[in-house]
Amino acid sequence: MSELRFKNFEMGDFDAVIALWQAAGIILSRSDTQTGLAQKLERDPDLFFIMTDADNQIIGCVMGTFDGRRGWINHLAIDPKRQGEGLGKLMIRQLEDRFRKAGCEKVNLLIEPTNSAVQAFYERIDYTEDKLIFMEKWL
User: Fold this and answer.
1) Does the domain made of 5-124 have the CATH classification 1.10.10.10?
2) b/e map of 61-79 (b: 16 or more CB within 10 Å)?
3) For the whole model, what pTM was predicted?
4) 3-state class of 72 per DSSP?
5) Which position has the higher pLDDT, 32 or 134?
């Protein structure tokens, strides 16, 4: 796996990352626009990164956020043709290292009901389910 590289997301990666998210079944929201992702980059750009292969093709992406108290994992995606190779685990471990450097002690994530099969992946890398009621409001 030495041909794999991590690189911070840049706006030039936008189209490829959106395509990857869609191919991986990520449900995009109205904040997953060029403007929305540019705003995300202003806050903590080092937590939003891609993984490239030997041909410099984007094969993975994750968008982490840290609010000063909790880290959040958002939009983890691996190219469907490369799933099952341990790349998701590498992405998460890299993100966890970056969270630690930022002073983060706890990481949270949400799983869409339509993507519940991914729960087993997270359980294998020591994430546990916490029954909560999630509420939201778009402004």
Assistant:
1) no
2) bbbbbbeeeebbbbbbbbb
3) 0.90
4) strand
5) 32
